[in-house]
Write a structure and sequence with these properties.
This protein is mostly helical and about 230 residues long. Helices cover about 70% and strands about 0% of the residues. The protein has eleven helices and no strands. The longest helix has 30 residues. The protein is globular, with a radius of gyration of 19 Å. The protein starts with a helix and ends in an 11-residue tail after the last helix. The model has no long low-confidence stretch (mean pLDDT about 75).
């Protein structure tokens, strides 16, 4: 539910950002992201409560914060737009929870400044620009990214569990997840830099998706040790 919320509430989040500014929206998102895990860890005793707090509440906060922060670099940078976006996205590979989340995200949210003028929440414009789907290139990138991002959310949730199923200790499973997050953060920065200087945005995306597909098919079926994982 956390992962799905980033997409489910993204359109609404963008309307809120356009009307009230990224800092206000991101502060609300940071509060939700911080309060959700705290309530889930301290006051919940059943799956429904965990679903509402850690899933729905944190998920809404994640969508608001991510949408506010991730879209700003494109309005400030032109030549190094991919690098700036990669650095912004790299923060998602590190992450934090609870009180630490509040302590980091709220001051960072207050520092956000929009470059584009604000638009009224009820501006009369359509919520979705359906005309974009008339462009074949947009459709290819949209649906290709939609399918290609499926594997993004598998390792963070199942890598520790898969490691313990192989007989590895829980600490090694946690280290594997930490390594995954670190590699994810570095990859976003390096591919952002490469996209700006050498490859271009679409070419970099194609290479990344191809690399994910090939390594999944070649390495994952035979991964039964810490080294291969």
């Amino acid at each position: 539910m956390q992962s799905a919320s980033s997409g489910i509430y993204a359109i609404l989040a963008q309307r809120l950002i356009g009307a009230y500014g990224p800092n206000k929206v991101c502060v609300v998102g940071a509060l939700f992201m911080g309060i959700g895990p705290i309530i889930a860890g301290s006051f919940t005793h059943n799956f429904a409560a965990v679903f509402l707090t850690e899933g729905v509440l944190f998920g809404i906060g994640e969508s608001l914060s991510f949408s506010a922060a991730a879209t700003l670099p494109s309005s400030y940078f032109l030549k190094k737009r991919n690098l700036a976006t990669g650095i912004t996205f790299a923060g998602g590979g590190i992450g934090s929870l609870g009180l630490l989340n509040l302590a980091i995200n709220i001051p960072a949210s207050l520092a956000l400044r929009a470059r584009l003028p604000r638009t009224a929440f009820r501006s009369g414009k359509p919520i979705v620009e359906w005309s974009m789907f008339r462009d074949v290139r947009f459709c290819l990138v949209f649906f290709g990214s939609f399918i290609g991002l499926f594997p993004l959310f598998v390792p963070p949730f199942f890598l520790p569990l898969y490691a313990t199923s192989l007989g590895l200790s829980a600490s090694k499973g946690s280290l594997l997840l930490a390594g995954f997050n670190l590699a994810s953060a570095l990859g976003r920065i390096l591919f952002g830099l490469g996209a700006d200087r050498y490859l271009g945005s679409v070419n970099a995306l194609v290479i990344c998706l191809a690399f994910v597909g090939i390594t999944t098919l070649v390495i994952w079926p035979f991964a039964n040790s810490v080294g291969s994982l």
